[in-house]
Design goal:
By secondary structure, the chain is an alpha/beta fold. Helices cover 43% and strands 13% of the residues. The strands form three sheets. Strands 2-8-7-6-5-3-4 form a seven-stranded mixed beta sheet, sandwiched between helices. It has a three-stranded antiparallel beta sheet with strand order 9-10-12. The mean pLDDT is 94. The structure holds 4'-deoxy-4'-aminopyridoxal-5'-phosphate. 4'-deoxy-4'-aminopyridoxal-5'-phosphate binds next to helix 3.
Length: 391
């Protein structure tokens, strides 16, 4: 499809090399990866290879990769599975205020079921979690702390290694949603000190609907399954494996590891040019969150006086996003931006641009032109006029 795609944090386009790795498994592959016959063994070999690439991507061990149907499921498994395993020993969970809905909603569910008490770690204007805040909230009753590596909406990076130290000093497990950081900034489970890590295929130019929870042996032993059945994936995720999806995820993980060092600085230059040109051409704009410590591909920009939904519909064919893609369609402004102290109004005026592997300088030129006209158009009109005019 033609257009300028700047919504990589929502879902990155499938790399053709990933598709190539998946196709034989879809067209020629047959057999269940758990079957012992020759067909099944071929499927299992593809899964094993993918397990190695995904383990490499996060610095874990292949045997400690639990394939899931995405990072949402991995986050559910980490939180719910750990709480159900540990609830008799410790009773409190900490999650940051800027987590993805799959962490926040699971935490709310766990609390509503009476399985654990949940406390939310606040963030300041920069949008990152201070290790000191974590330390001050720790206690002997805390079993699990979940803080993401990079925020999907602002790209802001959390000091996760520092946070992990505080969590471990309190004797708790550290879960890190690494969905947005992998392939963009170096991430290593051991260096960070993460006990459980969630990742997803479609953020790294792989297929959607596949992800993984990777852990240390010790922490995985403490997790209880959420999906019960034939005991696949160390007994933590029953169900026949989506072999082609997993193979695609593996190929995407390999490419992300191999190409990150070249791709990240190239994408950062394009992102910085985008911001610079928007600043030169549009008055009264501001980037949300700490810009010194963030993903190379992301900027979240507030265009004061221009409702972002109205800007968005006037930007076609440039695809960007307002708030988290997973909560778009809801009329509430971004929870993440509000947690950082932005007013509802400011959050409603903010747009995320997220670039990636296939973004070109031409894409940036078009995006700048389209944003400039859309913002000035919307600033001159009421919301209803702008939306009606676009439709
Ligand atoms: N965590 C983060 C930080 C994300 O950005 C996303 C995707 N928006 C998810 C989890 C959920 O991933 P998936 O789509 O694979 O379920």
């Amino acid at each position: 499809m033609s257009g300028v795609y700047l919504d990589y944090n929502g879902a990155a386009p499938l790399d053709p090399r990933v598709l190539e790795a998946m196709l034989p498994l879809l067209t020629e592959g047959v057999g269940n990866a758990s079957s012992v016959h020759r067909f099944g063994r071929l499927q299992a070999a593809a899964v094993d290879e993918a397990r190695e690439h995904v383990a490499d991507l996060v610095g874990g061990r292949p045997g400690h990769v639990v394939f899931t149907a995405g990072a949402t499921e991995a986050n559910n498994l980490a939180l719910r599975g750990m709480v159900e395993g540990e609830q008799r020993k410790r009773s409190r969970v900490l999650v940051s205020a800027v987590e993805h809905a799959s962490v926040l909603e699971t935490a709310r569910w766990v609390a509503a079921q009476g399985l654990a008490k949940v406390d939310v770690i606040p963030v300041a204007g920069g949008g990152f979690v201070e290790p000191e805040s974590v330390e001050s909230m720790m206690g002997p009753d805390v079993m699990l702390v979940s803080v993401m590596a990079a925020n999907s909406e602002t790209g802001v990076l959390n000091p996760i290694a520092e946070i992990a130290k505080r969590v471990h000093a309190g004797g708790a497990i550290f879960h890190c949603d690494a969905t947005q950081i992998v392939g963009r900034v170096a991430f290593d489970l051991e260096t960070v000190g993460a006990d459980l890590v969630s990742v997803s295929g479609h953020k790294i130019c792989g297929p959607g609907g596949v992800g993984a929870l990777v852990g240390t042996r010790r922490s995985l032993l403490r997790v209880r399954p959420v999906i019960h059945g034939g005991g696949h994936e160390r007994g933590l995720r029953s169900g026949s494996i989506n072999v082609a999806g997993v193979a695609g995820f593996g190929a995407a993980a390999r490419l992300a590891s191999e190409e990150r060092n070249d791709e990240a600085p190239r994408v950062a230059r394009l992102r910085d040019r985008l911001v610079q040109e928007l600043r030169q051409r549009i008055p009264d704009i501001q980037e949300n969150g700490n810009t010194d410590r963030r993903l190379p591909n992301t900027t979240n920009v507030r265009f004061a006086g221009a409702d972002s939904d109205a800007v968005l519909v006037n930007m076609d064919p440039v695809a960007v996003s307002t708030g988290s893609a997973c909560s778009s369609g809801s009329i509430e402004p971004s929870e993440v931006l509000q947690a950082m102290g932005l007013s509802r109004e400011a959050a409603f005026e903010s747009i995320r641009f997220s670039l990636g592997r296939f973004t070109t300088p031409d894409d940036i030129d078009i995006a700048v032109r389209k944003t400039v006209t859309a913002v000035s158009y919307v600033r001159d009109m009421t919301y209803t006029e702008a939306v009606n005019a676009a439709s």
